[in-house]
Amino acid sequence: MNAMTPLVGEPLAIDLVNTLTAEGDLLEDPAALNAWLALEADRLPDFGAAASAKNAATAADRAALKAVRSVREHAAAAFSALADERRPPESSLRALAAAVNAAPNSTRLAWDGKAVTATVQRGGGATERLTAALAQAAIDLLTDPAVAKLRRCGAEDCVMLFVPAHPRRQWCSPERCGNRVRVARYYERRKAGR
């Protein structure tokens, strides 16, 4: 089991892509996927820990892990291409669209006594709904103008991506890479001053 905790807080699709780190795959088994889903429960309420506790059918299994890794692979290829100012691979765009289309949305309108409410539900099984939600998050970011801000972490040995809220942000996480880089610079300056 990889001891590194997944970073969360970036757009959902970037959080997913960042589960594949320089140290290894943070989604190495269904239990790790379920733990990541619990971290993302506020953005994936149908698949987080609370939903899994209520309904074992929503807990990720090996098939779900394989499907989520496929979405991650295609999202990573598309985001990586954009970060390098290249065109995203057509195969990745097709695969993300196919994942969304495998569990199409349906909308139900109702009157609650005061206003019209809309309830959106995805069709398909739990795995299809999960991968559709993740693929939709990737598509939403790929088509958002904010994707132009997408950056790679400034630490040499880090593969993480992020969308900076501040233009001077250099690292995926100030606590992880930022601190590591600052400490290394400090020791380099001390060594040079001797």
Describe the structure.
This is Zinc finger CGNR domain-containing protein. Residues 150-190 form the Zinc finger CGNR domain. There is one protein chain. The chain has 194 residues and is mainly alpha-helical. Helices cover 47% and strands 9% of the residues. It is built from seven helices and four strands; from the N terminus they run H-H-H-H-H-E-E-H-E-E-H. It has helices at residues 12-17, 30-39, 49-54, 62-83, 90-101, 126-142, 174-192, and strands at 105-111, 116-122, 151-152, 161-162. It has a two-stranded antiparallel sheet with strand order 1-2. It has a two-stranded antiparallel ribbon with strand order 3-4. Strand 1 and strand 2 form a beta hairpin. Helix 4 (62-83) runs parallel beside helix 6 (126-142). It starts with 11 loop residues before the first helix and ends with a helix.
Task: Give descriptors for this structure.
mainly alpha, two-stranded antiparallel ribbon, Jann2411-like fold, elongated
Helical residues, percent? 40-55%
Q: What is the CATH architecture descriptor?
A: Orthogonal Bundle
Task: Give the rounded overall mean pLDDT.
Answer: 87
Q: What count of structural domains? A: 1
Quickly give the structural class: mainly alpha
Number of helices: 7
If you consult CATH, what is the topology? Jann2411-like fold
Extended strand count: 4
List SSEs in N-to-C order: HHHHHEEHEEH
CATH class: Mainly Alpha
Cα Rg: 19 Å
Strand line-up of the largest beta sheet: 1-2
Organism: Glycomyces algeriensis
Pfam families: ABATE, zf-CGNR
Protein name: Zinc finger CGNR domain-containing protein
InterPro entries: ABATE, ABATE_dom_sf, Znf_CGNR
